[in-house]
């Protein structure tokens, strides 16, 4: 497994497509932060908040993450890399886990520009706002902007950032079984974005049914996991991490069950 992970990480570092995805993430993070800074300054009309939200992490990662899965997993079906790994003795569970780990690492790389931008924004003490359009790292920036952080609050900020990374990884882990089933990058991106949009709609529905709320909160799409800030309790942060990690394990298991029964041609 270690050799497969090393090979995929090396390929990821050399891939032009992945470098382009990281560049897009970087540009989007900067645009998001600049617009969130200029709106409260009156330099940009608040009506442009929706445009700024399009460049936020919650919007961009849903697309870029699915494209990343298409490159790392679907692409290896096209170039027969996965076929060769199985043919040379690697078990299918090993292939699933190694691909999944590398994919989650890639998601972390895509989120890194947003983390850096958020760190710079919070340390600047400036005011940031995107109206009501704020989730994930953007919500963390706009909610805690202007706050003077103590040493303990810096520690909690790191914990919140780590938690949001895990939540995003869990949300995108659904791409792993989908990639092994669909094997087509275009379909994968469209389907994952559809799931992301649907989960957003279901969030509003969760309050109308206690049963649905209980079930939905057991997924990284439910609850208020993407609204975590410095004001969030430690218990809820641990809950978000636990729910996300369990969901990732379930997605890997579904991918294994699917791939185990699939015929490699």
Written account of the structure:
By secondary structure, the protein is mainly α. It is 76% helix and 0% strand. It contains twelve helices and no strands. The chain has helices spanning 2-14, 16-41, 49-54, 57-78, 81-87, 92-124, 136-144, 151-172, 175-182, 185-205, 210-216, 234-261. Helix 6 packs antiparallel against helix 12 (234-261). The longest helix is centred in the middle third of the chain and has 33 residues, at 92-124. The radius of gyration is 19 Å and the shape is globular. The model has no long low-confidence stretch (mean pLDDT 84).
Evaluate the radius of gyration.
19 Å
Structural class: mainly alpha
Main beta-sheet annotation: none
How many DSSP helices? Answer: 12
Number of strands: 0
User: Could you tell me how far the N terminus lies from the C terminus, measured between alpha carbons in angstroms?
Assistant: 22 Å
Q: Please report which band the strand proportion falls in: under 5%, 5-15%, 15-25%, 25-35%, 35-45% or over 45%.
A: under 5%
Which descriptor suits the 3D outline?
globular
What's the rounded overall pLDDT mean?
84
Order of helices and strands: HHHHHHHHHHHH
Which consecutive residue ranges, at least 5 long each, have pLDDT under 50?
Answer: none
Helical content band: over 70%
């Amino acid at each position: 497994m270690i050799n497969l992970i090393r090979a995929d990480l090396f390929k990821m570092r050399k891939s032009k497509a992945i470098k382009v995805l990281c560049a897009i993430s970087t540009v989007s993070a900067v645009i998001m932060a600049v617009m969130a800074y200029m709106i409260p300054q009156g330099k940009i009309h608040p009506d442009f908040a929706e445009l700024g939200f399009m460049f936020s992490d919650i919007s961009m990662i849903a697309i870029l993450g699915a494209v990343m899965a298409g490159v790392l997993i679907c692409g290896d079906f096209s170039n027969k890399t996965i076929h060769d790994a199985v043919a040379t003795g690697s078990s299918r569970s090993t292939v699933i886990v190694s691909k999944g780990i590398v994919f989650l690492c890639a998601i972390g790389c895509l989120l890194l520009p947003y983390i850096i931008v958020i760190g710079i924004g919070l340390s600047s003490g400036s005011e940031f706002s995107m109206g009501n359009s704020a989730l994930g790292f953007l919500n963390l920036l706009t909610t805690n902007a202007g706050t003077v952080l103590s040493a303990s609050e810096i520690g909690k900020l790191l914990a919140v950032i780590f938690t949001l990374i895990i939540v995003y990884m869990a949300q995108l882990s659904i791409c792993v079984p989908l990639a092994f089933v669909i094997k087509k990058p275009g379909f994968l991106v469209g389907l994952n974005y559809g799931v992301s949009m649907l989960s957003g709609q279901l969030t509003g529905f969760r309050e109308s049914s206690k049963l649905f709320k209980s079930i939905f909160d057991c997924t990284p799409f439910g609850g208020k996991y993407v609204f975590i800030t410095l004001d969030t309790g430690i218990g809820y942060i641990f809950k978000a991490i636990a729910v996300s990690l369990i969901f990732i394990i379930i997605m890997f298991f579904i991918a294994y069950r699917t791939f185990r029964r699939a015929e490699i041609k």
